[in-house]
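Troubleshooting entry. The earlier prediction with magnesium ion gave an output that would not parse, so I re-checked the input for stray whitespace and re-submitted. Clean input:
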Amino acid sequence: QRYRDTGSTEKMNPFAEQEAWEDHQIGNATLKFGAKNKQVSDNYEFVFEDQIDFIKASVLAGDNYEDAMPAKPSQESTGKSAFDMLQEERKNLPIYSYREQLLNAVKDHQVLIIVGETGSGKTTQIPQYLHEAGYTKHGKVGCTQPRRVAAMSVSARVAQEMGVKLGHEVGYSIRFEDCTSEKTILKYMTDGMLLRELLGEPDLGSYSVIIVDEAHERTLHTDILFGLVKDIARARPDLKLLISSATMDAEKFSDFFDHAPIFSFPGRRYPVDICFTTAPEADYMDAAIATVLTIHVKEPLGDVLVFLPGQEEIEAVEENLKNKIRGLGTKIRELIICPIYANLPSELQAKIFEPTPEGARKVVLATNIAETSLTIDGIKYVVDPGFSKMKSYNPRTGMESLLVTPISKASATQRAGRAGRTSAGKCYRLYTAYNYYHDLEDNTIPEIQRTNLASVVLSLKSLGIHNLLNFDFMDPPPSEALIKSLELLFALGALNQLGELTKAGRRMAEFPLDPMLSKMIVVSDKYKCSDEIISIAAMLSIGPSIFYRPKDKQVHADNAMMNYHVGNVGDHIALLKIYNSWKETNYSTQWCYENYIQVRSMKRARDIRDQLEGLLERVEIEVSSNSNELDSIRKSIVAGFFPHTAKLQKNGSYRTVKHPQTVHIHPASGLSQVLPRWVVYHQLVLTSKEYMRQVTEVKPEWLIEIAPHYYQLKDVEDAASKKMPKTTGPAVV
Ligand code: CDP
Ligand code: MG
């Protein structure tokens, strides 16, 4: 039996039938007015065909079906310079044929929604077209990206295409890293950075065009920007606003932006065979590895893209694949493994774009970043385990966690599409067709509806937006979540009882950090330990990947790590010790090697720390050091993180104090064997259990001393039973 997608063309181009709409057809592009919501139905006809352990289920076909892959001329054969070759590549992108129409549409309309398939050239080309058309004469073109890796890699590409040095005419700005200069006219930045820029320049006066790119990703910051830039555009008729998206739900964007016209152009797409597994997979990582190896051994050449939830999973699969390949020796062709995730150092990021040597195969292990933000040429096979890491937030308890979650059908379609960009391809879904049709949601829920809003609420308050319930949200967050964040900001002292920003709140808003971290820094002034606290904040900001554990030296690595924990009251202090030891060696790389510490992470921490030090000056906090007074440091931590307090239970687990929930100390914590009675934690991560990451022991009386408005004696009642011996070994309560 065979299965065909009967409505594939309509599916790819939902604008194909649009009788009721007043449209303007320009060549193949459609400029659509008065858009309204419309359902695109999945009219699939099922016929199955058995195939190894996959079933082949459908074929995604493109608008412009092309049988043969246009051969790329090589530099030697043409004798052209690399720069000329790049110019030719630019002209081969689908968007190139619509350059004039697009520029005309931008000229005629202040706000334009742009829809074009991933890889068609929206992100790299539109800013250049605008520059060529003179829009940079009176201001910058800013282009936002939800992901920092995308901002870095795309700007690097555009700088190359324009023949300029990155950071000069073309630059990027991401949190803690500004690679722009006076000269910069095309600025790529994360959506979060534009939000921060708004705090200093509320009318975005230095910009002539703002492109909110990857709008379909609907990240929290993008959603907030929608409301803000819409308002700015009304006040500034000279500002052009482009909202660009890879998916078809553009009507929603159009509706939101006062029925702005939609400019959609067809991409180039080759058919993609989609295979499902016949039975659910017990372990998606093992299944992914097996599938990659099967492809490598059985399928014709072409690169493979594997979607994994996060860095940890990518590193595990990379290691496992390398071992298996080593085991197979010279029996198989060369397999080049390239990981890509947000924290990957930029030198290594570039590797995924390097052409695969002849006869070899490249396998890219990527997070969701490769779903729409980055296009890697030459991918012919996609392996989709069906998961991504998603934030989830419980507004009732205020708990936020990062979960490995099934993706949506929309994501699955985007992932499959990655296989058909430069030639016909194949997508292996590591889940069953039944799962796909019955269990996956149609669309991913916008982040604003499943995240802690404290940080953006603080930003909005400092922008002078007081009535948040009236803010122009495309999809409003649950009101409990808004209220919860107002409560938290109140508890942290950032807002007063009237919901107005306090002096502390104003200072906190200057830091590009979570309000709890900002509070910890602001309070360190009082405890005279800002020097130590910004080191801790910087170390917390680089994420969990400070140590490395080479396979053959795991014991040494673990010993090195435990050295920093010995006698400690917590992980925060251990982080401080690591930072200070490194500083004492004059930031030595050798020292990092000897201690199994990632030198790159440390350099980044140093960078972040320098910036935090600059911000201290800006909010007039003196750098003061109190390194012998560990209690002062711990009290500063408590002042920021008191809502994250947990108490040890008889069975060795913990219970959070407010909104009780069972949690555990993460095994990587220095306190995981110590089990102190009271702890505050930096964050919760749900893997096999709900784990507290980065934990510090606290005294319950501090909670009353520091947060009397939040905790009452009864919350910390065993504070009185001082006879309890201080727990040092595994606790028996
Ligand atoms: O934004 P959109 O998905 O429409 O496409 P794009 O990111 O502008 O990508 C257009 C082309 O540039 C693709 O063929 C990419 O492979 C290429 N590109 C690249 O080679 N290196 C990058 N860092 C980014 C894009
Ligand atoms: Mg793009």
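This one parsed fine. Residues 93, 116, 118-125, 153-154, 156-157, 353, 375, 377 surround cytidine-5'-diphosphate (ligand 1) (CB under 6 Å).
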